[in-house]
Amino acid sequence: MDTVLVTGANGFIGSAILTKLQLNQQYRVRVAVRQSSRPYPDDIHVYDGLELALNTDWTSALSSVDVVIHCAARAHLLRDTSADPLADFRRVNTEGTLTLAFQAAQAGVKRFIFLSSLGVNGAETTSQPFTASDIPSPHSPYAQSKLEAEVALLKLAQRTGMSVVIVRPPLVYGPNAPGNFGALCRLVQKGLPLPLGWINNRRSFISVDNLVDLICRCIDHPNAVNQVLLASDGEDLSTTELLKKMGVAFEQRLLLVPMPVPVLKLGAQLLGKSKQAQQLLGSLQVDIEKTKLMLDWRPPFSVEQGLRKTAEYWQKA
């Protein structure tokens, strides 16, 4: 039975991975966190006080580990007050990740699964969805730090023989999702009128359950070795279509007011919300054919199932 170490297990995605690993009972599971903020089952060994930093000693956490699933990161922030955001992201997401990965290779870890971001590809698609073979075009300091980590990890794999798997998801939704999706859930739950009834963009999303299923497939699949894999639900939606599906899932009648996109963009610009508007109004599509064919994988849950599970969480909150 292989031993799997999950970093960032307190977070939205890390905690979902932990739940999945516990349910299938095929692996011995460890978690590494900066600060233990929740109770863990007795059969899970918890290593806390571990920062993603250059001087962190991961020796104890990595002893006898076969696979690392690395979810911990400095997340992108809506209001980043850092004087040098790129330097701060690099310190954690690039340098901290490489410190962990180098020590993992030295400890004999066989596989290192890195949760990256679709932001590495870019911020928007026009005529064609993003693919894993596209030239990267990171659109933010966060995405840049993830790309630099990817490049260094693949070089480390070549030098050491430890296999690396890189997974780039788009927006991940599900129960207790943070950030913009959580804010959208609050608006839908309140049934407030939204001026988003005439948006004809196309966006890819992925439910946390589909993402976790893919990551778990990467633990031992031989075709995943040293690959960059894009992920999504396999169903692209416009913002208007997404909101309609959310209304059904939340059993909430929504008033979606049709308003021209140029008017919305102008209003967002005047309010200093252009970045948030782009995420609602622009297109961002993912081609997951490589992932599906290479790993013989299909997203096991539909968008409707993912949104219903999300709505059930919010209705109990």
Automatic annotation (TrEMBL):
Coiled coil: none annotated. InterPro entries: Epimerase_deHydtase, NAD(P)-bd_dom_sf. It holds the Pfam family Epimerase. Pathway: Bacterial outer membrane biogenesis; LPS O-antigen biosynthesis. SUPFAM superfamilies: NAD(P)-binding Rossmann-fold domains. Residues 4-225 form the NAD-dependent epimerase/dehydratase domain. Belongs to the NAD(P)-dependent epimerase/dehydratase family. This is SDR family oxidoreductase. It comes from Zwartia hollandica. The lineage of its organism: Bacteria, Pseudomonadati, Pseudomonadota, Betaproteobacteria, Burkholderiales.
